[in-house]
Design goal:
With 250 residues, this protein is of the alpha/beta class. It has a single domain, classed as Rossmann fold, CATH 3.40.50.620. Helices cover 28% and strands 26% of the residues. The strands form 2 sheets. The chain has a 9-stranded mixed beta sheet with strand order 9-8-7-10-6-1-4-5-11, sandwiched between helices. Strands 2-3 form a two-stranded antiparallel ribbon. Helix 2 packs across helix 5 and helix 3 (94-108) crosses helix 4 (127-135). It is globular. The protein starts with a strand and ends in a 6-residue tail after the last helix. The model has no long low-confidence stretch (mean pLDDT 92).
Length: 250
Amino acid sequence: MKVLVAIKRVVDPYVKVRIESDGSGVETDNVKMAINPFCEIAVEEAIRLKELGVADEVIVASLGGDECQEQLRSALALGADRAIHVNVSQTCQPLSVAKVLKALMDKEQAAIVLLGKQSIDTDNNQVAQMLAALTNRPQATFASTLTVDGDYVEVEREVDGGLERLKLALPAIVSTDLRLNEPRYASLPNIMKAKRKPMESITPDDLGVVIKDYQTIIEVMAPPERTAGVKVASVDELVDKLRNEAKVIE
């Protein structure tokens, strides 16, 4: 069984994000980058499936420029077997990413495709659902547990009313949530081994996929700064401010 994991290069979640002066996006020059945290959870789950003897091979894939290879090497150091770098110069939108992943899923004959439920930069939460629609395969989003049972995968996912358990026939697409696992740290020996693991570099043309823009970003802006709060001397003063200034009570 092959497990294909999609990962995305994003600004490190602990770095303060700054908006470009022209409002076209966020600054990425000389900024620390990392694997999207939800994608890292997907990598960890795939590695655990291999350690359990369920998966035979873990393949990680990423779309982007040459700089994406840094994150692919990080995933290889965590325990993935090989990497596929789809070299694209432009920013890929969710539908284009889903089309590339469909081509990779067909090429590799992957039984399970694992993705983070969303990326922390665009927060679209669309690729897994689009991939399932394009491949006509079952999907489970926001997975908090995952168990492979023969030709099926059982997924427990969080919904508004509690927990939902799904049983999907393989091949299947699963997107990971925070509670699924806690990613490991790469050891120094594994970091060294990752340098010798295979990484294939291809283009969308090699997969027969045309990258298109389906939406246009008009402007990126920072959220308004929060104003300082005020202290009140009594309950009556608090109620007065809520009624007359904030106007949240009548």
